[in-house]
Write a structure and sequence with these properties.
Elements: H1 2-22, E1 25-32, H2 55-60, E2 70-79, H3 86-100, E3 106-110, H4 116-126, E4 133-136, H5 149-161, E5 171-174, E6 177-180, E7 185-186, E8 195-196, E9 204-207, E10 210-213, E11 237-241, H6 249-256, E12 261-266, H7 274-285, E13 290-294, E14 308-309, H8 315-325, H9 336-339
Helix pairs in contact: 3-4, 4-8
């Protein structure tokens, strides 16, 4: 009887090992945010502190994950997403690419929603493989009643594990919606249904606990890919908001502070007051890059003679694009190609 029991245990262990080997390998990079946030009261969904819970704890809170993939976690950071900087972005990119170039099937990044679109866009531009990177977060902290983080995390792992997710670039996953990182942005400060791409829509959704895509994989027209494996820092690019009565002094201040480039959130199709336009035009003639985007939240900013049009990119994404583009060229005549607005 003892021999039979031992044999059954050994057989079970071999079976479990075989199942584990058949499951995809997914690594979760933890960076903090609301999904790892904590508050004193379970009803507090705004006064919490972000980045309080380790990624290992987030994984343990969703035991169903072990049925989806072989999951491990790496704590890259544990902070509010407003504190994510170039150093953290580069560490994420290098870690993700190193994993994806081996036997890792996909990477999930837990992240605060406030700057998810910036990190997701950055990762979309630096992924050196066609394997999926999924950026996921939550609008309610982990301590809240009906916290949305656990289901979002489970769905993110399912998405990163799915073969049909390959070749779609980096994706943003929240509230059952699958969005392309290139286009998706946060559109509401507190609503659960906050991430949208106004003009392009979603890539797919979750139905019955499984990802359902609306389209075959497709690439963004003209999207560049950057190799950041040898970079230790990124160029400094600042954003300035355009408004009535705006003067050129703020542009001067940013240049004098040492910024390598500027993105202006202009009105409409990248419009700015005349005095500011003259300053931007002079900087452009001097070879200093200024990108004109729009503060409207959607739409295309066309090619400009006096600056660089941002195309479909909002100010925060235009900043990321300019930072990366400046690692390859500082020529203001070449930079519009990265935005799809070359004349």
């Amino acid at each position: 009887m003892k021999k039979l029991t031992t044999a059954l245990i050994i057989s079970s262990l071999f079976s479990l090992n075989a199942i584990a080997q058949e499951l995809p390998n997914i690594t979760i990079l933890g960076t903090g945010g609301t999904i790892a946030g904590s508050a004193e009261k379970s009803t507090d969904v705004t006064g919490y502190k972000a980045g309080e819970i380790a990624v290992s704890t987030l994984i343990e809170a969703v035991p169903q994950i072990v049925d989806v993939a072989n999951v491990d976690g790496i704590q890259v950071a544990n902070t509010s997403s407003s504190n994510i900087d170039s150093k953290i972005l580069l560490e994420m990119a290098k870690t993700a690419n190193s994993l994806l170039q081996k036997d890792t099937s996909g990477v999930v990044i837990t992240h605060g929603t406030d700057t998810t679109e910036e990190t997701a866009f950055f990762m979309d531009l630096v992924n050196q493989t066609d394997k999926p990177i999924v950026v996921v977060g939550a609008m309610r902290p982990a301590t809240a009643i009906s916290a949305d983080g656990p289901m979002n995390l489970l769905n993110a792992v399912k998405l990163a594990s799915d073969e049909s997710a390959h070749g779609r670039g980096t994706m943003v996953l929240l509230n059952d919606n699958i969005g392309a990182a290139y286009y998706t942005s946060k559109t509401s400060s507190i609503s659960l249904d906050t991430f949208k791409a106004h003009d392009q829509g979603f890539l797919g959704t979750f139905a019955g606990g499984e990802p359902k895509f609306y389209y075959e994989p497709a690439k963004v027209m003209g999207k560049p890919t950057f190799d950041v494996s040898k970079l230790e820092s990124l160029p400094k690019v600042d954003i300035v908001y355009s408004y009535q009565n705006m003067g050129p002094e703020i542009i001067d201040a940013i240049v004098e502070s040492g910024a390598d480039g500027i993105v202006v959130a202009g009105s409409g199709n990248g419009s700015v007051p005349s005095a500011v336009r003259e300053k931007i035009s002079q900087l452009n003639e001097d070879g200093y890059p200024v990108v004109l985007s729009t503060r409207t939240g959607s739409g295309f900013v066309t090619a400009k003679s006096h600056a660089i049009g941002s195309g479909v990119l909002n100010p925060q994404k235009a900043r990321i694009m300019l930072m990366l583009a400046l690692t390859e060229t500082q020529d203001v005549k070449e930079l519009p190609v990265y935005f799809g607005t070359q004349s």
